[in-house]
Model the fold of this input.
Amino acid sequence: MIPEIEITCRGGTVFINSVTVEQYKKYVSLMERNGSDRITDAMFFNKKIIQEIFGNRMSLAELGGAEAIEFLTAAKGIHFIMQDVISEKLLTIVDVEPIEREASAFDEYDVENGYEDDMEIEENPWKACGEILDRVIKIAIRLLKNSYSQCMREDIVSLLEYLKFELDTVNENI
Done:
């Protein structure tokens, strides 16, 4: 269960107390596209994130007119839930040990002759998160025998907890 997040806009209060797979997928997509360090870009993406998570029940102009403390509290709450709760569950569905790259006697030769890049390309973590989410959706569709649209409407926390349970107990009945 996630904490309730609310924002007052247009004189009315809008709230969420769960996140669907579709909302999380949109969040990941927006975070992947937000590569800027400019404050104006960050504020725009926060407005888009709030708009998407609250189901487009308010326009960007209305969000711009919201009290700054309410806006920032809602944005911070959404980021906390998405990153510290949902992403953490998503990335720990399967217990894996990190792969350590061992040095080789030929590493320097490979780099000098162009067989291997000198610097590893830093991948956007949100792109990787989106790819993992796509795989989770695919597994959920097969496991739950739901359509894609039904899967997108599922509460993501419940779905991830169920998938973790299924993966942890997959060999118990064999």
Notes: The mean pLDDT is 85. Residues 1-93+123-174 form one domain. The chain has eight helices and two strands.
